[in-house]
Amino acid sequence: MHNIETLNKLLKNELSATETYQQAVDKLKENVTLGESEHLQPVYEAHKDAVSSLQALIHRLGGIPCEDSGAWGTWAKIVLEGANMLGKKAALKALQEGEKSGADDYEKVLQDTELSSDARALIETKLLPAQQSHIHTLDRLLDTASE
């Protein structure tokens, strides 16, 4: 049960990320001159893939995957909407902070000695490396972003 609860918390984070990136990509596509949507689309797709992987693992462990991001997803959308009003750089920074928070969550879960070997392998080989890649992508976008 402990593993399922932990994985569902991570799943909520990933569901929130997919909702937030969908909103960001849609917003950037509205303003073609911003040009970041093609860089953020793969990050969005990677989060969707993480959702699928976590859902499958939760099922294999006999659990029921959560279906929504809960309060965290609502908060993330509010933050992104506010950042969008402040400009592209603020929106990218909000996405980057979300990615860093997600990476921290994965690293904390890896400290859990009761974590199943399947969950540990998924996080170490796929989910955390993807999260770190997203941070680097956003670092590059922030380095070249102007308001």
From TrEMBL:
Transmembrane segment boundaries: none
Gene3D superfamilies: 1.20.1260.10
Residue ranges of every copy of the DUF2383 domain listed in the record: 4-111
InterPro entries with a match to the protein in the record: DUF2383 (IPR019052), Ferritin-like (IPR012347), Ferritin-like_SF (IPR009078)
Protein name: DUF2383 domain-containing protein
Source organism (scientific name): Methylobacter tundripaludum (strain ATCC BAA-1195 / DSM 17260 / SV96)
